Amino acid sequence: MNYLNARLKNLTAYQPGEQPSDGGYIKLNTNENPYTPSRYAVINMGVEDVENLRLYSDPECRKLCSAIAEFYGVEKRNVLTANGSDEVLAFCFAGFCDCGAVFPDVTYGFYRVFAGLFGVNYDIIGLAPDFTVRAEDYFNCGKTIFLANPNAQTGIYLPLAEIGKILKNNPNNVVVIDEAYIDFGGESAVSLIDKYKNLIVVQTFSKSRSLAGARVGFAVADEGLIRGLKQVKYSFNPYNVNSLSARIATFAVKDTQYFGECKAKIIKTRKRLINGLKELGFSCLPSTANFVLAEHVSISGEELYIKLKERGILVRHFNEERIKNFVRITVGTDADTNILLKTLEGILNEKV
Predict the structure, then answer these.
(1) Contact indicator for 92, 176 with CB cutoff of 8 Å
(2) Which of 193, 143, 142, 185 shows the shortest CA–CA distance to 163?
(3) CA quadruple 68, 144, 106, 135: dihedral positive or negative?
(4) Could you report the per-residue pLDDT of 18-72, keeping only the tens digit for each?
(5) What residues contact 40, with CB distance under 8 A and at least 6 apart?
(6) How far is Cα 350 from Cα 343, in angstroms, rounded to an integer?
(7) Do 284 and 277 form a contact (C-beta atoms < 8 A)?
């Protein structure tokens, strides 16, 4: 007997990247930050924080929201925190999609999953042949718009001027800009929330702040939209961010020096990675994220993924038609990059 709700039986769940338990791989598959969390944040965690786990966490995450608000120059009432940015996105699908949803054909895979989970009708809009988002494709679409910027699988950034056009041409619908990778290139749309009351900006501590395991995300938006998100949150899980995660995230926001240093190192290594891949004959999409989507004419994406895994390196391969010949490579350390490029050279030499 299958007791699962009928509408969920055919739902294809999100498939996360491999997380091997033996630690024997160079992990370049899930866009984790190769550098440790802020030391300043870590040393501010104490015995008292652990002892206080007997208490429920602050459902409003007041200290964390204040730190985020100060960093972005907004008011605390414009911020909502959650258990990773995925939870914020889930709240958006649950709370703002009676009209349906729309998002690109190549983007973050959870959008389709959340649409299915919450019974949301959705439309898919194809990226341009060069894998860019065309703003005009989203004008007056009459649905809630979800755009990852930089895009989750391509790494391509959509300038704020184009996002502004989309917002202006959809005044009666919410536009969700998912900025998981914005800190590695481009300008955040947070600067637009005062001008556009229909904008929700979603971010995460998982990438640029090295806290993927802490599971902390947040939204910045007009106060009215934040109230709507809170209504969903308090109808689901008021204590959604645990005390330890909220505390370390608060101090991580305040450590702006380390934040800048890590970003700079990843951006520098990304450039070196792209140049190295191109020297080996790869074609790379112009990424402003902490990953690169690359393909090679002499080997399929699936075969390359398998051969790298056999040699102790994990990258990500997707079976989606438009990107099935690509692999997505997370920007690691310089040492990781050296090993990757040398290994790729060996694999390609075998194909000659």
Answers:
(1) yes
(2) 193
(3) negative
(4) 888 877 899 999 999 999 999 999 999 999 999 999 999 999 999 999 999 999 9
(5) 251, 252, 254, 255, 258
(6) 11
(7) yes
Cα(186)–Cα(149) distance, rounded to whole angstroms? 9
**Cβ-proximal residues to 74 (8 Å cutoff; 6+ apart), any chain:** 190, 193, 220
How many CA atoms, within 13 angstroms, populate the side-chain half-sphere of residue 328?
A: 25
Give me the pLDDT at residue 352, please.
Answer: 60
**pLDDT < 50 positions in the chain:** none
What is the residue whose two structure tokens read 């990424």?
287
Nearest to 345, CA basis, from 302, 289, 298: 298
Residue 315: left (phi > 0), alpha (psi -120 to 50), or beta? beta
To the question of pTM greater than 0.85 for the whole model, the response is: yes
Query: CB of 144 within 8 A of CB of 176?
Result: yes
> Which residue has 């494709």 as its token pair?
137
* Rounded Cα–Cα distance for residues 179 and 187 (Å): 10
Q: Decide: 94 and 144 in contact? Cβ < 8 Å.
A: no
User: Computed over its alpha carbons, how large is the radius of gyration of the chain?
Assistant: 20
Indicate the angle between helix axes 85-96 and 223-234, nearest 10 degrees. 100
